[in-house]
Design goal:
With 191 residues, this protein is α/β, with parallel strands linked by helices. Helices cover 26% and strands 17% of the residues. Strand 2, helix 1 and strand 3 (63-66) form a beta-alpha-beta unit.
């Protein structure tokens, strides 16, 4: 039997550095949807048009690199890497990024595995205490029906996601950027 205190975070083996073109602005990786997931859970999706407004609002200060699947809605004004990198190359892009912005899913965990802080739009489907990381800015919307764990067909029009404005996410990005890259907080399990 294993006992003691253990840090809880995902790990990945060797990553492949994916060379990004030079840019004086700090890099933020962003994903616009989870449409290409094996099981696309639509209640996890924020709105691609709002992700676009986040990019528009912060493009003067940050370079955005869009990661994920070629099926994800394209965000204008980003360096488009959708579908162009392997998992290990995507890990390299995340490692080279100051932070990642997206929703609950694989890339959130991949970012944590390479010590990249994230802003995760949770909405209300699940609570960040159930799957999030303390080093991230987890944007949660506590409405009457949350957490619901629905896969799709929300009967209240995804009000939890609708309550999350572009301004809430852009402010979360600024706070996360200001926290820097050192000393990412860890969850600890005491067994």
């Amino acid at each position: 039997q294993v006992t003691g205190k253990f840090s809880v975070k995902p790990y990945i083996g060797p990553i492949e550095i994916y060379p990004l073109p030079p840019d004086p602005r700090p890099t933020i990786s962003i994903q616009s949807s989870g449409v290409a997931a094996s099981w696309h859970i639509t209640t996890k999706d924020w709105f691609p048009e709002r992700f676009q407004k986040v990019v528009d609002a912060l493009a003067d200060d940050f370079r955005f690199v869009q990661v994920g699947s070629a099926k994800d809605p394209e965000l204008v004004g980003t360096l488009d890497m959708r579908g162009k990198t392997s998992i290990r190359e995507t890990a390299g892009v995340l490692k080279a990024s100051r932070l990642y912005v997206g929703q609950v899913g694989f890339l959130m965990h991949l970012a944590r595995s390479v010590n990249c802080r994230s802003v995760i739009v949770y909405g209300g489907r699940e609570h960040p205490d159930q799957s999030g990381y303390p080093c991230n800015e987890n944007v949660y919307s506590a409405v009457e029906c949350s957490p619901c764990w629905l896969l799709s067909e929300c009967k209240v029009g995804k009000i939890c996601m609708d309550n999350i404005s572009v301004e809430i996410v852009t402010e979360a990005i600024k706070r996360t950027y200001d926290r820097g890259t050192a000393n990412l907080e860890l969850d600890v399990a005491d067994l």
